[in-house]
Design brief:
- The protein is of the alpha+beta class and about 250 residues long.
- The protein has four helices and twelve strands.
- The protein has helices at about 5-20, 40-45, 75-80, 155-160, and strands spanning about 25-30, 35, 90-95, 100-105, 120-125, 140-145, 145-150, 155, 165-170, 175-185, 200-210, 220.
- Strands 3-11-10-5-6-12 form a six-stranded mixed β-sheet. It has a four-stranded antiparallel β-sheet with strand order 2-1-4-9.
- β1 (about 25-30) and β2 form a beta hairpin.
- The chain is globular, with a radius of gyration of 18 Å.
Length: about 250
């Protein structure tokens, strides 16, 4: 049976994924200060009884630098990655300021997937985020970038072009307090197939300072996406005139 060009491209994308691996946030800059991400080495250090540095980045067990698949959207892993747990520290971030995430791979390589949106969420903590229960966090979306239909370049492609970095702005109107900041790439190179999308959520404890008053309502992590959402089960290998952004509505207050 003949194989379409799109199918060949999709298969090559999946093969490339296997060869190159995936990725995670190795560090970030907040309020002009460099901060460490949760490195996979820390998982093995912890299992070996070694000391692990205190971090604002959340612990996770994505040991292959891998992803959360759509058939796990209704599990707690979708919040902050596999078997995630809160970091013990908090990064202070003024409302209206930028946070820049730096992506890499366990082998030191670049982010390999140019197809897919990048989405930012925040969730207010009831007290210290180091004690947050991820199953009770309610996420509100603060940024969502899909594809530039003029250039056909995805947000993920822009991240690669910017030396594997992505910058988001903490909304100036958000009330001061403790939040978990959730940064996520959804890789779509295999999304033509049901459950072929790949979610890479990364979480960080932040304390927002400022004089904002907005306290947006949010959505539980297990209700953010379904595997049949049109922006999740999606063919990226065609000319795209519109992309249905996954997740709840964007907070614009």
């Amino acid at each position: 049976m003949p194989v379409s060009t799109a199918s060949v491209v999709t298969l090559l994308g999946v093969f490339t994924t296997t060869v190159l691996g995936h990725g995670y946030v190795t560090g970030y800059v907040a309020d002009s200060k460099q901060e460490p991400g949760f490195l996979l080495d820390y998982y093995y250090d912890k299992k070996s009884g070694m000391d692990v540095p205190p971090l604002a980045a959340w612990y996770a067990e994505n040991l292959d630098s891998g992803f959360v698949a759509p058939d796990a959207y209704q599990t707690s892993d979708i919040n902050c990655h596999k078997n995630s747990a809160p970091g013990s520290l908090t990064t202070v971030v003024p409302a209206g300021s930028d946070v820049t995430f730096q992506w890499g791979t366990a082998s030191g390589g670049a982010w390999p997937h140019p197809y897919g949106p990048i989405i930012e969420y925040m969730a207010a903590c009831d007290g210290d985020c180091a004690k947050a229960d991820k199953t009770k966090l309610k996420w509100f979306k603060t940024q969502a970038v899909g594809i530039d239909t003029k250039t056909q370049k995805w947000a993920s492609d822009k991240l690669i072009a910017e030396n594997n970095t992505w910058t988001t702005t903490i909304p100036a109107s958000v009330a001061p307090g403790n939040y978990v900041l959730r940064h996520e790439i959804i890789a779509l190179h295999g999304a033509s197939s049901l459950n072929g999308a790949q979610n890479y959520p990364q979480c960080f404890n932040i304390e927002v300072t400022g004089d904002g008053t907005a306290k947006p309502s949010g959505t539980l992590g297990t209700a953010l996406y379904k595997n049949t959402d049109p922006g999740i089960h999606f063919n990226p290998y065609t000319t795209i005139t519109d992309y249905p952004m996954p997740g709840p509505e964007l907070f614009t207050g």
